[in-house]
Amino acid sequence: MMTTKDNTLHIANMVCDRCIEKVEEIALANELMIAAVNLGEVQLKMKPTEKQYHDFKVSLDDSGFSLIVDQETMVINQIKTIIIEHINKIETAVHDESRTLKDIINAHMILSYSRAAALFSDKTGYSLTDYYKKLRMERAKEYLLQEKYNISEIADLLGFTHLQYFSTQFKLYSGYSPKKFQRLKPKVRIPLDKI
User: Fold this and answer.
1) pLDDT at 3
2) What is the per-residue pLDDT for 93?
3) 85 lies in a domain?
4) CA triplet 54, 57, 41: central angle to 5 degrees?
5) Which of 108, 100, 106 has its CA nearest to residue 82?
6) Is residue 89 located within the same domain as residue 168?
7) 145 in the same domain as 102
8) How far from 180 is each of 163, 175, 176, 184, CA to CA, in Å?
9) Based on the domain organization, do 82 and 128 belong to the same domain?
10) Are residues 125 and 186 in the same domain?
11) Residues forming beta bridges with residue 67, ordered by sequence position
């Protein structure tokens, strides 16, 4: 059984508030004593029994989540969680679009950005920058389909300073210009936890 000294279980594939609710539901169903549930982790009041741990792990796997047991995978999951939380705050006043990916990572991790980026690339097979871009493009698809914002506002929300650059990047990623994507409404979104 892998828990840290503070009885924290690290969970992969948590990307939103619904994931937090689902993991909390699973933990309670497996009679775990929860202190807190956040993106990527469950903090426990006390160490679970072997049976509770096993049943929790199986229940998580059945629901599309998984327990993380090695240190490097925990770091990768932490990086993903930091970036996803940043993307999820895009529409709020808390979001600061002027912050670079390096700033975002450095603000939340002890590990240097260069070391985090190298580890991420080694373990996932793609760069941290590519991961961030994919998340932003998937969020752009969501906004385009919702038609809540115009294309210029979407580019701005996602931290693109030039509309043309955003449109070029979106077309390279999706195969459609933002306008055409919005008009055709193709169902080609990728869930954030699958990126």
Assistant:
1) 47
2) 55
3) yes
4) 125
5) 108
6) yes
7) yes
8) 15, 10, 6, 6
9) yes
10) yes
11) 11
Report the SS3 class of residue 112. coil
Is residue 23 one of the residues assigned to a domain? yes
Domain hosting residue 128, numbered range: 73-194
Residue whose pair of structure tokens reads 């993307």 in the numeric block: 87
Q: Show Cβ contacts of residue 175 under 8 Å, excluding neighbours closer than 6 positions.
A: none
Q: Which residues of the chain have pLDDT under 50?
A: 2-4
Confidence at residue 18, expressed as pLDDT on a 0 to 100 scale:
92
CB 13 within 8 A of CB 193: yes
49 shares its domain with 131: no
| Neighbouring-strand partners of residue 34 | 44
- Helix, coil or strand: residue 9: strand
- Residue 85 structure tokens: 């939380």
Residue 185, Ramachandran bin (φ over 0: left; ψ between -120 and 50: alpha; else beta): left
User: What is the Cα–Cα distance from 192 to 136, expressed in whole angstroms?
Assistant: 10
The answer to whether 105 and 113 have CB atoms below 8 angstroms apart is yes
pTM: 0.77
pLDDT value for 185: 83
Tell me what pLDDT residue 98 has: 57
Using one digit for the tens of pLDDT, what is the confidence trace for 61-99?
999 999 998 889 889 989 999 999 888 887 765 555 557
Number of domains in the chain: 2
pLDDT value of position 33: 94
